[in-house]
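Why do we care about 3D structure at all? Because function follows from shape, and shape follows, mostly, from sequence. That is the central idea of this module. The next example makes it concrete: a single protein chain, its amino acid sequence, and then its structure expressed as tokens.
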Amino acid sequence: MGVPSLNCNQMEKYINITDLTGSFTLHNGVQMPYLGLGTYQSDNDQEVVNAVKSALEIGYRHIDTAAIYKNEEGVGKGIRESGIDRKEIFLVSKVWNEDQGYDETLKAFDASLKRLGVDYLDLYLIHWPVSGKYKETWRALEYLYAQKKIKAIGVSNFLKHHLEDILQDCKVVPMVNQMEFHPHLVQQDLIDFCAAKGIQYESWSPFMQGKVFELDICADLAKKYNKSVAQIILRYNLQKGIIAIPKSVHAKRIVANAEIFDFELSSEDISFLDGLETGERIGPDPDNFNF
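And the structure:
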């Protein structure tokens, strides 16, 4: 089946979508599972511990957190209580805005490791492009990467001009850019730019904080494929070569989110979802945030 809306790099990834154990290859050769568990707004208590344990028991091997989520301790506890070997888990965290800068980032990274109870991260991201600081923050990530304390480094919420600024004088090209992505905010030009530079695109808020369930076209597609709207959207992510980390604390939903490997969206339906682009943001604008 042809997928004309995808470039060659994304097409190769699409072909490699197999099951929950599958991954996309970052430009440094690291394998990053293409479906993970997001933990934003998951409480740092038994809620996030149980969510992480449920996901790992089901077969997820990618867990995403951040310093600002205030739940790294719970995530670490869930990993330990799962009984799954740490080496099998792709663990991600992010440096928060107030901790940016070279020395501050090094301290923030050590604090995240301590809270998580681990001695390395698989991926560490700059959470937002704080003006005047993110390049020094990137330099700190490059140092940590060279010290082999992180297997991959990347950014989050970086638009094209932010990436171009980083790329001017970086030693290591970011491996990942985690962005708000959903049918109303596709940003295909940014996806294509990242693909051309070897930067893996990853989505946050793929469900538009619940608004995607109100879109008639998504309901129509769910009926057509006999799948839930959530499953349609997650499959849409993967077929576009985009890593997805849907957040849930409910075991049944964590299971359902992984039941997306027994069907394929047609190229026409992918293009139709792309065509729903409105530029609407659910979260803050990377060019205009004050936190």
